[in-house]
Design a protein that fits this description.
The protein has 411 residues and is of the alpha/beta class. It has a single domain, classed as Alpha-Beta Barrel (TIM Barrel), CATH 3.20.20.60. The protein is built from 17 helices and 8 strands. The chain has an 8-stranded parallel β-sheet. Strand 2, helix 6 and strand 3 form a beta-alpha-beta unit. The protein is globular.
Amino acid sequence: MTDLDRLAADVDVRLRDADHELARWATFRRSGRQPVHTVYVPADRVHAGIVAEWSERAKAKLDLHAPYRSALADALDFDHELVAYDRVIEKLTNEPIEDLRIDFEDGYGSRPDDTEDEHVRAAASAVRTMLDDGTAPPFIGIRMKGLEPATRRRSLRTFDLFVRELGDIPDGFRLTLPKVTSVDQAAAMALVCERLESGYSLGPETLVFEVQVETPQSVVGPDGRSLVAPMIGAANGRCVGLHYGTYDYSASLGIAAAQQAMDHPAADHAKEIMQVAAAQAGIPISDGSTNILPVGNTESIHAAWRLHAWLIRRSLARGIYQGWDLDPSQLPSRYAATYAFFAADLPESLRRLRAYEGNDDVGYLDEPATAAALADYVLRALDCAAVSDEEVAYECGLDRTRLESLAHRRQ
């Protein structure tokens, strides 16, 4: 007869290192809301009224080129029943920007040190004003220059000065680290965050960052290994997201400018690697942007909206719930597409959750993992205002606390 105690002890020894590594990765997991987009604004264009400005410009564009529900549905080539026009207007009014990234990198360019210092101070002052008067987006931060030798000191100087000028660091503050080319750069960024926290008497893990995946080296290293997951590990819990850089990455692979897009096969390959790595650490990923903006006459604006909306729904269907927006005119298609994605499956998802809780029989026998996915889907809809807490409670009888429990979100 087998000595099960001895066998179990031998298995414990055999799996000790693997158990330790799995537990270490579990500590990286972060919970809570993921924004549906990140808005990039060059640092010299940021001011304390930027959110209100984007709100007014987005609503004016919508009012002029799609002033009612059927017009927007036709512009996007969507089923009219899926277009939540009133919700889009409400979102553009109350929370047009979910995540603001003040850009000191490609969107800003190279400036003399005294000029960039001036813009850092002005941007920090604008953020402080927004925080103090309650107009700041839920998430906000900066994209500094990369840690390659040519820009390293300017990058660190910008980060240090911004933290010093801002003072109290709000929840939802993010740093975006671009053009990452090695695991060591992610480790170095974690060291920078730790040193700044110490220098400015900030709490532990107050400073966190996103890795922008936009170089070949960040996807596959010289030895053929995928480096995305090791970068997350090297960040030691400070990496809170992976963002895909559409155009730098495409260009680095030699893809012609006309073919550089979020839906290129090379882009899908990179994002699939990012998605697998991020899933292990429990952190979100973000798609990139389209540079085709809704400008010109109504026909051109509708065409750009239609492309933007299609790309957004494509990303959402692939489990990528965030992207980049570069102009206020992209906000109507961002929210219309996001809300349509949730509207398409939300009724059925709520019925399945109701059945899972034993309150109904809709012909499904869902596993706990599927129930977790259903709950996460509903929480995302709640977070971006695609549905209200009251509507969810009425349809499936669950409140946010129970949904978070089902989704295994740690608070």
